[in-house]
Amino acid sequence: MGDYLGKDIPKLGFGLMRLPKLADGKNIDIEETKRMVDAFLAAGMKYFDTAYVYDGGLSEMAAKEALVDRYPRESFYLATKLNTGAQGCVDEETAKKQLFTSLERTGAGYFDFYLLHALGTRNRQSYEDYHLWDFVKEMKEKGLIRHYGFSFHDKPEVLDDLLTKHPDAEFVQLQINYADWDAPNVQSRECLEVARKHGKSVTVMEPVKGGTLAVPPERVQQIFRAADPVASFPSWAIRFVASQDGIITVLSGMSNLAQMEDNLSYMKDFKPLNEEEMGVIRAAQAALANVNSIPCTSCHYCTPGCPMQIPIPEIFGAMNKYLVYDQLEGAKHDYGWQTGGKSQASACIQCGQCEQACPQHIGIIEKLKECAALLEA
C-alpha cells in the first residue's frame, strides 16, 4: 500500500454521531460515553470524529467532557467539520465562525483533522463563495488545524472534479460499505478509486450503513454464519472496509458499551480479510442485490428543514422492516410509534427540500407516498 497520511492510525475510529442518550431521548449520556471513551483508548484506538451540526452541538460538547478534559491532548486525534448548510449559517462570516465555536465547545485547542462537510453537487459552490478552501489553509498555517479535507456524498465524477480543483485537500471522508460497494446511488468502490488515484487517503463513514448491516437480511446472515459462526455481523462490515487501500480509519457510530466492546474485539488486533473471506463478502453482496429496501442511513440531513416536521428516516426505517424482513405488523407498529405526535408520511407537501439535502439521493417524496399507502392503511 505504501505510505499515506494516517497510515499508522489505528483502523477503528469512534464516530460521535450516535452517542448514547439519557431517558429523555435528547441529552447525551455522558457517563456511558466516558466508559466508551475509556475502553476505546485503553485498546489503543485514537481517532474521534464529530461535527459542528451533530446533535445541535451536543456531540462536540460531549467530546470535551468525556475526552478532552480527561486525557492528554496528544493522546488522541480529534476531527470535526464545517457545514454551510448548518442552521444559522447564512454568509461567509457565520460559516467561518463554526471553527471557533467548535474549538470553544470541545476545548481541544486544535483539530487534527478538519473537514468541509458533506460536499456534493448541490452545495459545493457555497464553499467556494464563502472562500472556505482558503480559510482552512490559513487556519492550518496558524496551527488551529493539522490536516484538512472534506467529506463527500455524490458521484465519482464529482469527486474527481473536486480533487482536480482542490489538490491541496489532504484526505477525503467517504461512505464505504459492502452493501454500497457498487450501488448506483453511492458507488463506494469507484469513489475510493478516485480518491486513491489523486493520492488521497480516506476516512470511512457508514461502514455498517447506519446500522443496517449490523442486522442484515436473513439470507445474508446465513452466509456469514456458515463462514464463521462466531464472528458478529458488524465485524464483517468493518473489517471489509478497513482492508481497503489507503484507509486512515473506519468510523463506527457506536451508541453503547456493548457495541464498543464488539468492535474492539476484532479491531484491537486488526487483520485484513483474506481472499477466502473476501469471497464471503462477495456472496453477501450478491444476496443483498436481491433485497429491495430504501437506502437511508438515518443521517437526518433531511429533517431540519421539513416544514411538516416529518420524521423521514424513522419512517423509512419502519418501511425497511417490511421490505427487508417482510414484517408488516412490526413495520406498522414502528411507524405508529415513530410518528406519534409528529406528522405522518401523508402530510408531505412535496416541497422537495428533503431531496436536495439527502446525501443518498433518495426520491423521498415518492417513497413517502409508498410508506403512507402501506403503513397508514
What are the key terms here?
single chain; 377 residues; alpha/beta; 8-stranded parallel beta barrel; 12% strand
Folded structure, characterized:
It is built from 15 helices and 8 strands. The protein is of the alpha/beta class and 377 residues long. An 8-stranded parallel beta barrel has the order 1-2-3-4-5-6-7-8, surrounded by 5 helices. Helix 8 runs antiparallel to helix 11 (275-288). The longest helix has 15 residues, at 92-106. The chain is globular. The model has no long low-confidence stretch (mean pLDDT 95).
Structural class comes to: alpha/beta
Please give the order of strands in the largest beta sheet.
Answer: 1-2-3-4-5-6-7-8
Instruction: Give the overall shape, derived from the CA principal axes.
Output: globular
**Quick one: how many beta strands?**
8
Mean pLDDT: 95
Number of distinct helices? 15
Low-confidence stretches: none
Taking the sheet with the most strands, its summary is:
8 strands, parallel, barrel
| Strand content range | 5-15%
Order of helices and strands: EHEHEHEHHEHEHEHHEHHHHHH
| Residue share in helix | 40-55%
Distance between the termini: 54 Å
Radius of gyration: 20 Å
